[in-house]
Amino acid sequence: MDTLAALQQIDELKDVPEEQLNWLINNSEFHEIKQGETMFSPGDPINRLFIILEGDFTLRLKRNNQFVNVGRLQKYTITGMLPYSRAQSARAYAEALSDSSVISLDEALFKEMIRDHHELTTVFVHAMSTRIRQFTKQEQQDDKMMALGKLSAGLAHELNNPSAAVVRSSKELSKLLKISPDKFKNVIKIKISDEEIDRITTTLFQKIDGNIKEMNLIEKSSLEDELMDWLDDHGIEDADELSANFVDFGITEDDLESFSEAIPDSQQNAIFSWLNQVFKTEKLVSEIEDASQRINDLVSSIKSYTHMDQAPEKTPTDIHVGLNNTLTMLNHKLKDVKVVKNYAEDLPKASILASPLNQVWTNLVDNAIDAMEDQSQKQLTISTKKEGEFLNIKIEDSGTGIPKEIQDKIFDPFFTTKGIGKGTGLGLEFVQQIIKVQHKGAVYLESEPGKTIFTICLPITEA
């Protein structure tokens, strides 16, 4: 291969003086990489500049125990260590898709190149700038897609339970309304006076509309046994089913006695069966109403969270709404976390961009949850307070903490303490950009093992 001719085919290098290209060739190592072999792997030090003269490579990253193709390095690509780059180690596998030829220059020669070969150095610095822009754009897109994937999975999980409850309860209600012919005959043959009907229905609707006392399992089982014994003693059919439903609505043995006194013996089975039907119907309707309300609340939270029906401009907004909506969005990850809200009463509205600020809450809360992953006691505390002309929002977790030696780096672009595939290092940088640049606020960190606090300071009026 005529290496000089190959280098001159590269757009970035075609105007570089020939003697500088010859210096590059004379000081480079040549590599023949077979199909399936790697040019570099995750963890390898980035200490050489690579130029692909023949062949191409796929970049593969391991995420959640699966390999994902994240890019491609084609013929004539300049990659690896570049002048003034701060990259330290590779994050992906560069696997050859075909037999390839590559030259590499050790970074130990960069000082000589920078001193003596200006045009060549300029090309590589421009290549680094382009790579940073492309990498940042791709990482931002990946971060958004990852956040969207998490959000979608959480919403699917949260919607599944109430939607399944609606389906289940509606089917049970349909069955209940199709009562058997024998039960229907018994109901329409009931003959009691208006006074007796009023006595029964008054108690019935008092129980339906009343506040039912919370009972533990032992108390509930004991009361069910008492009611079942009473029903059995009075020859009432399906005593086990009736007792379970009656207990749910706070019916006591005294209530059963009151019903019995108002009902002729020949009508008792029919009346108690009818009461059971009413209670079961009320219970199913209540379940459907509750599940439907949960779905409606979740959809409303999504709309408010994204502010998809509002213009992207600062408006006076209740901070608590965004915080609560964020907790709703992340509820699927908070099942075993104790959430404490120390919200200040009468907190004034702040002039904010609601949707970007919700991304701040999402990043901080999501990071807090991840930090508590291996903790036995998990507590997330969110506090709000007015201090002068500012609002202070504190998000505290009982996680492992952030080591002091890296606390001054956590807002740097691409810095992350998470494993490969679990974070891009863009989250906290975005937090700082949204708070400092868009809202003219500030972000503060306090951290020690078992306690990490991020404090967001926002001006109340538009800066």
From TrEMBL:
It catalyses: ATP + protein L-histidine = ADP + protein N-phospho-L-histidine. InterPro entries: cNMP-bd_dom, cNMP-bd_dom_sf, HATPase_C_sf, HATPase_dom, His_kinase_dom, RmlC-like_jellyroll, Sig_transdc_His_kin-like_C. Residues 282-462 form the Histidine kinase domain. It is an enzyme of class 2 (transferase). It holds the Pfam family HATPase_c. Its EC number is 2.7.13.3. This is histidine kinase. It comes from Algoriphagus pacificus. The lineage of its organism: Bacteria, Pseudomonadati, Bacteroidota, Cytophagia, Cytophagales.
